[in-house]
Specification:
single chain, mainly alpha, 5 helices, 0% strand, elongated
Length: 87
């Protein structure tokens, strides 16, 4: 294991991880690692969709990135930045 970092989970999830580790003779870290690997394998399509969304935002340039991060229309960013409207 390269290193450890705390993660925040609910008390109920923490307890489930503890029980699963005890019942399967694994460490809590191993349970979390396995769960994350299984999630990634089962949801590869969702991950691919997220990558595609990120690619589209990045391809849109600075205005698209700012609009995405601020959750506002790109036109608002252009107006505030003093850029002419797209069109």
């Amino acid at each position: 294991m390269a290193g450890q970092a705390p993660i925040k989970v609910s008390a109920q999830t923490k307890e489930r991880i503890r029980y699963l580790a005890a019942l399967t003779d694994a460490t809590q870290a191993e349970i979390v690692d396995r769960a994350v690997a299984e999630y990634a394998a089962r949801h590869a399509d969702l991950i691919q969709d997220g990558i595609e969304r990120a690619r589209l935002v990045l391809a849109g340039g600075d205005v698209a990135i700012a609009a995405h991060l601020l959750d506002v229309p790109a036109e608002d960013i252009r107006r505030i930045a003093g850029e002419p409207p797209a069109g």
